[in-house]
Design brief:
There is one protein chain. Helices cover 26% and strands 35% of the residues.
Length: 122
């Protein structure tokens, strides 16, 4: 099974977006170990929301685009990882080890909906 992990950082904390050399080295080792064990498929960090946009579509308003930063959000997505795990429990255990690398972080774990998970309507 595949799972998506999205980690959220407090956008108001500059240190969250400027990791130390020690953090970079720990994260690099964690990533390499996860790749070697065929857990990590891919993962990336993202830049703060001030350099992004939010696209919304509503029935009555159509499509709107809001440029960052997103002041209504305290925590924003700081990165993501796509992983292999046998079940949700194993994915959560991996997310806990991942979260342990940070001072403060929130990690959401969601199972990927595979094509074969959907029933074909005849």
């Amino acid at each position: 099974m595949r799972f998506l992990m999205m980690h959220r950082l407090d956008e108001r904390v500059p240190e969250a977006w400027n990791p130390s050399q020690e953090f970079i080295e720990k994260m690099g080792a964690f990533i390499q170990d996860s790749i070697d064990k065929d857990i990590l498929i891919m993962g990336e960090g993202v830049v703060p929301s001030e350099k992004g946009s939010l696209v919304r579509k509503a029935k009555r308003a159509g499509i709107t685009v809001t440029d960052g930063p997103f002041t209504e959000a305290k925590e924003v997505i700081g990165g993501f990882a796509l992983i292999n795990a046998k079940d949700l429990a194993e994915a959560v255990e991996f997310a806990q080890r991942y979260a342990d690398l940070f001072q403060e972080v929130e990690v959401e774990v969601r199972q990927i909906a595979e094509f074969e998970d959907f029933e074909v309507q005849a």
